[in-house]
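Please, structure for the following, as tokens.
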Amino acid sequence: MLQFFAIFVVLVITTTLLVVRILYVIFQSSKPIPKTSQKHLSTLVVLGSGGHTAEMINLLSVMEKDRFAPRFYVAAATDNMSLQKARVFEETLNNKTSLQGQDSVQFMQIYRSREVGQSYITSVGTTLYALSHALLLMVKIRPEVIICNGPGTCIPICAIASVFKVLGIRWSYIFYVESIARVQRLSLSGLLLYRLRMADQLFVQWPQLQKQYPRACYVGRLM
């Protein structure tokens, strides 16, 4: 009986500390990046396919390139076109930015949690595989900033980043920019990040969308 009580007390204390830590992370996540003396912020950019990549490139084109660096581009393993567009974008910056060298930009691929048309039953295994791949990727990169704008590829990465925050391993600021095509409702990725409070800041480009999701930040049309 005494041993059972001791185990119960340990579980209660552990659970309480975990809940407190999660609440702390949620509270801190609502704050902007502090203005420190640190000049560079290693940045992980999650690319989608088609319009998502085009929107992301447009967004990156107006960002402070020297501050959000080095940059790591990640796309789905079956998406070579998005990485090619990112390479072309970075090549155009070579003569415009002071940050150069092989270590300043890297391109990587990650497995999808679920392919288009894949059944939800078989997606369980692929999701677990994608999570393990995202874990290895996050351990390797350890980004300070994660930027994504819609593709489901970002969910495993953001999930691992959130776990790292709770465990105190690494604090990665997650910025999610909802696609301009989303006028009335968030995409599934955006909804998950919003409901689970994984995103430090979630930006929308339509005022009616911000009214429906009040914790989102309305920034007008970015693209």
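Strands lie at 43-46, 71-76, 105-110, 145-148, 173-177, 201-204, 217-218. The mean pLDDT is 85.
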